[in-house]
C-alpha cells in the first residue's frame, strides 16, 4: 500500500496520516543530522537586521565555532539565525538550518549547508536538543525563551545530560534572572537556588564559545553538582532524552529551607 493509499484509506483516516508525517519528519531529521559531529544550537531574534549589534555578534559566534570544527544549528530563518549560519558557512563549517513552515512563511536564509523544513514544532525542537552539545542564546522573543526554558527543564529533570546553556547579552537577560531569583526562588520557592546555576550569562562571545568547547572536550563546566549517569539508568532514548529510571534513584536534593509562614 502506498502512502497516498494509506492517506485515503477509510480505516486509517486523517489522524493516521498525520502520524506518518510526524514519523517522516523525525526520520529525515535523524538521517540528515546523525553525521554532522559535535554541534551547538544558536537561538535569537528573527527581527534583527545586519546592522544590529547582536546580529554581528551571532555571526562572529558562528564563525568561531566553525573554526573549531563545531557545527552550528539554527532555526534557519533571518536575524540572529541567519547571522550564525552566515558566520559558520563563510568559515567553511557545517551550517544547519531547521526551518519551520509557518502560516506567514519563513524565508530560509541562504547560508545553510544542511537544510531541513518541519511542519511540527515539536519535531524540530527534538533536533535542536538531540544533536547539540550546548545552547548559545542571544536576545530574542517568545521562540527564544521557549528553547531556553525547555533546555533548563530537560536538564533540571535529568531527561538529558547537563550541557552548557549560555545566554549572551547581560543587559537583555539580567532582569529576567532577577525575577527568577526573587519570585521563583525566594518568594514562591517553585525552583531551588541551584536551579539558577543551570545556565550562564556573558557579554563575551568568545567566552560563550569556550564554555561549550570545554564541554565538548569533556570538562564538567555546567551543573557539575547534578548526578552523573552510567549503565542502564543512563540509557538514552531514540529522540535524545533519557529513559525513565527507578523513582528512588537520583532524586534531586530536597529544598531544606524552612517553610515560609502563610500570609
Summarize the structure.
The chain is α/β, with parallel strands linked by helices.
Helix content: 40-55%
Question: Quick one: biggest sheet?
Answer: 7 strands, parallel
Q: Class of the largest domain, according to the CATH hierarchy? A: Alpha Beta
In percent, how much strand structure appears in the residues?
Answer: 5-15%
Indicate the low-confidence ranges by residue numbers.
none
Overall number of structural domains: 2
CATH arch. level architecture of the largest domain: 3-Layer(aba) Sandwich
Rounded to the nearest angstrom, the radius of gyration is 20 Å
Could you state the oligomeric state of the chains shown?
Answer: single chain
How many strands? 7
Supply the helix-strand structural class. Answer: alpha/beta
Shape annotation: globular
List the helices and strands and how they pair.
Blueprint: H1 3-8, H2 13-33, E1 39-43, H3 53-67, E2 71-74, H4 80-90, E3 95-100, E4 114-118, H5 121-130, E5 135-137, H6 142-156, E6 165-168, H7 170-187, E7 200-202, H8 205-216
Parallel strand pairs: 1-2, 1-5, 2-3, 3-4, 5-6, 6-7
